[in-house]
Amino acid sequence: MKQRVFSGIQPSGVPTLGNYLGAIRNWVPLQDTHDAIYCVVDLHAITQPFDPKQLAAQTREMAAALIACGLDPERCVLFVQSHVHAHARLAWIFNCVARLGWLNRMTQFKDKAGKDREAASSGLYVYPNLMAADILAYHATLVPVGDDQKQHLELANDIAQKFNHDFGAEFFPAIEPLIQGVAARVMSLRDGTKKMSKSDASDQSRINLTDDADAVALKIRRARTDPEPLPESAAGLEGRAEARNLVGILAAVAGATPEAVLRDHGGKGFSEFKEVLAEALVAHLTPIQAEMKRLLGDPGAVDAALRLGAERARAVADPIMTEAERLVGF
Ligand code: ADP
Ligand code: NA
């Protein structure tokens, strides 16, 4: 039997280059080697400010982006989180299993809540419990994500273990993160210490998968760098977060290592290197954008694929959910 993988992405905006290189791109080959389940997580998207009039369209756009990047609704289960009720039901049980102290340690809450923590939604706070439910509702054991999600997966394992202990059954399996590639964490173009995120306030901090050639070139040209030329080897990237990020992005897009990128471009100034990088990005993104546009020309077909995906997801999650509720005593 194939190992089951689960991963999700929020429809909180157009996917960024970080989402693509850190996650989506790595999901594609797993469709053939694993039992792959991928979800547009709209329940997560409402943990932060959002526009209810836009949410359904953004969800469809995210699904179209995923298909354009190579997910095939025939070869994987692709669906929308709110269409499958097991996620929210299991998350409630997990809210009662996870300890407050565990959630207090989650660094992403601090990043996402920003300065006014008291004003953050309580959903944002328990988001990692919902993420645990997303995965465990399918008894998935492998989770391909970006490096930013590592801490949440450790929490999911703690929840699974405590559930098994408290309810006296080896019911939920251990899960493992699958963090792949040189661009497992793509950083903001404006601040090399922050991850690139679609929910960041500044559009200049990220490359969106839908950015046209001019936007890509402009954002890369304006990306923060230091005044030194590129080093000749990867060791020279130490302490140079912005340089490391841009080299990592080119390596990921070119399917090369940072060492190979520096063999070709070491010694160059950033203005020259940035032109090479922008060109490589545009060449990579153009066919994805064309496919996305084609898919969104027929929104009914995307919705139909998602409805079918939800049926297949329910067939897996509902029996697991029912058994979890029985163990709890419902
Ligand atoms: P975002 O933070 O952009 O809203 P999501 O929370 O929807 O992204 O995450 C979707 C997937 O993209 C996750 O697997 C996450 O690990 C990955 N991801 C998000 N940002 C980055 C990044 N800057 N670099 C690498 N992977 C990322
Ligand atoms: Na995230």
TrEMBL record:
ATP binds at residues 10-12, 18-19, 146-148, 186, 195-199. It comes from the Bacteria. It comes from Craurococcus roseus. This is Tryptophan--tRNA ligase. Belongs to the class-I aminoacyl-tRNA synthetase family. Keywords: Aminoacyl-tRNA synthetase, ATP-binding, Cytoplasm, Ligase, Nucleotide-binding, Protein biosynthesis. It is an enzyme of class 6 (ligase). GO terms for molecular function: ligase activity. A motif ('KMSKS' region) lies at residues 195-199.
